[in-house]
Amino acid sequence: MKPSRSEFLTVRGLRTHVRHWGRDGAPVIFMAHGWMDVSASFQFVADCLQGDWHVIAHDWRGFGLSERSHADTYWFPDYIADLDAILDHYCPREPVNLLGHSMGGNVVGVYAGVRPARVRRLINLEGFGMPPTTPLQAPQQYANWLDQLREPDAMRTYPSREAVVARLQKTNPRLSDQRASFLAQHWAACNEAGQWEILGDPAHKRPSPMLYHVEEVMACWSAITAPVLWVEAEDTNMWRWMGPKPEARIEIDRRLAHLARVTSHMMADAGHMLHHDQPEALARLVEQFLLSE
Q1: 8 A C-beta contact, residue 39 and residue 109
Q2: In this structure, are residues 4 and 20 in contact, taking their beta carbons and an 8 Å threshold?
Q3: DSSP letter for each residue of 156-222
Q4: Which pTM was predicted?
Q5: Is 40 helix (H, G, I), strand (E, B) or coil?
Q6: Which residue, 145, 170, 184, 232, is the most exposed by fewest CB within 10 angstroms?
Q7: Angle formed by the axes of helices 245-256 and 214-222, to 10°?
Q8: What is the pLDDT of residues 146-204, one digit of tens each?
Q9: How far is residue 98's CA from residue 183's CA, in Å, rounded to a whole number?
Q10: The dihedral of CA 185, 191, 197, 202: what is its sign?
């Protein structure tokens, strides 16, 4: 495995963990992980990159080794503002290569429309967004949020690192023992009680009180000027979030039509965690896209 190094920045008042692969001075690729994940998730893709790259990946607030927000709810705009601050720190003057997976894909997609001049090339790995909503859903959405605020905060624990490995492989059966063991040591840590606890603020599991406004997101996508590489997994499980597959496929294609310069790719033999399942193929795809004219 390629060695990585850690750095901690204060980002909008929170101590934020940033992981680096490659040499300073090489062309930079910023990578943004998904929900309930960590920056080390990109280790296998970093290993497979053939060129001279400096990969920078941070742990979002409340995930991995980054500080928690100390609030009972995480707000999506905070991720956008955190990303803006991180990019300003490392690349304040030039457009950047930006990759995001799942939740991270949603963040970078909105960001690229809000700050189009800051993004050179955008890679979205299964950042579909959420199902459309209607205003009539608002009362129940607020009620669900209030109900969950009454519940105690807790993350599930595991008796050993081996149990964490088993949990990761249950979610993704394609994970080899070696890869699952590597991820386990970054995804969870042993607490004072001797239990292995996921490195994520349990507040992330609460539903947002705010509805997902897809047309606002699409307005941001329409403002993107950078070329976009859109990558889906052939065996994704994201249909459980987006609704019945035929209708969801129509909605996803409708959303893609808002991207002016998009190249779509379907990754074979991969699930939602496609950067774990097919890192070699994904690394080739990423490099071809970033180096193309």
Answers
A1: no
A2: yes
A3: -EESSHHHHHHHHHHH-TT--HHHHHHHHHHHEEE-TTS-EEESB-GGGGSPPSSPP-HHHHHHHHH
A4: 0.96
A5: helix
A6: 170
A7: 40
A8: 999 998 888 889 999 999 999 999 999 999 999 999 999 999 999 988 999 999 999 99
A9: 22
A10: negative
